[in-house]
Amino acid sequence: MPKVPSVKLPVSGLFGVVKPSGPTSMSVLEKIKPLIANSCLFVEVDKLKKETGRTKKAKHTRFGVKIGQGGTLDPLADGVLVVGVGKGTKKLGNFLDCVKEYHTTCLLGFSALKMGGKPLYEYARNGIPLPRPIEKRKVTVHSLELIEWKGCEHNFRWPEKKFTEEQRKAVETALQGVEEDVAIRDEPEDATATEQTPTAFVLRMKVSGGTYVRSIVHDLGHALGSAAHVVTLTRTRQSRFALEPTEEGDQACIPWKVFEDAVKDAGQADQDGWAKWEREVLDKLEIVDGKVSGEAV
């Protein structure tokens, strides 16, 4: 186990979590909050003693422990999620406009556009006007590499949802003000292709803040005279926080299972009084406020 540093508690800081695919970024934070609110690592010991007997939710509300994340990952995506606690939340803005790295698996043949987190076909299906025009934005792609060509050697398949003719026309009409002569195709040009395994490939890219990976994949599909969409998306790096630290100053991230297990059962504290998840955080915590002291707690 890593040696616990001597620090003056409580501390404020930043750490990276390996978000799993499935839950939202907010739900990940909500699961972590009770742990943070009941740890002397982030809350003064006297306050913890005074709150004995109160629920974890009540303790969190009473303590007012601040916690936030430095850039949302949608439910499909996994990978680096930077978390800030206490004064560390004031540093989270630095992670919105920073270099990020992604690995994404893409399928050639059909692409589903989204707006406001809702697929365009949902707007068309429910007769809802688009909330805003699809705006162009200036971003920087530092690198874009094809790291694997899977071809048909994979288990991914075509999306099952399809437009009705009425829905297809509704989406085309909605997009007319953004792109001239837009045409929505909800199936491959080759009708027999739906019975075949789609072509897949994997990209690695380093991009600036504000970049939509799905938009890059969508544009690549069009450049190939087809369409493309994302089926897996992993953020492997956000500034200095990385899944696989390779550069000087890189910070490793904490596996989600560490927190998942702690929520179910914090377990016994070690000889120094720390739970397993607290040890992991201490090992990977970037302290924003908390001075080194002469003795361990």
TrEMBL record:
Q: Where does the Pseudouridine synthase II N-terminal domain start and stop, copy by copy?
A: 66-110
Q: Which family does the UniProt entry place this protein in?
A: Belongs to the pseudouridine synthase TruB family.
**Official protein name in the record:** tRNA pseudouridine(55) synthase
Task: Identify a single GO molecular function assigned to this protein.
Answer: tRNA pseudouridine(55) synthase activity
Q: Which domain of life is it from?
A: Eukaryota
Enzyme Commission code: 5.4.99.25
Which keywords does the record carry?
A: Isomerase, tRNA processing
Catalysed reaction, written as an equation? a uridine in mRNA = a pseudouridine in mRNA
Q: Name one cellular component (GO) term.
A: nucleus
Which InterPro entries does the record cross-reference, listed alphabetically? PsdUridine_synth_cat_dom_sf (IPR020103), PsdUridine_synth_N (IPR002501), tRNA_psdUridine_synth_TruB (IPR014780)
The keyword RNA-binding is annotated on this UniProt entry: no
**Stored PANTHER family:** PSEUDOURIDYLATE SYNTHASE TRUB1, TRNA-PSEUDOURIDINE SYNTHASE
GO BP annotations of the record are: mRNA pseudouridine synthesis; tRNA modification
Keyword Isomerase included in the entry's annotation: yes
Q: Name one Pfam family in it.
A: TruB_N
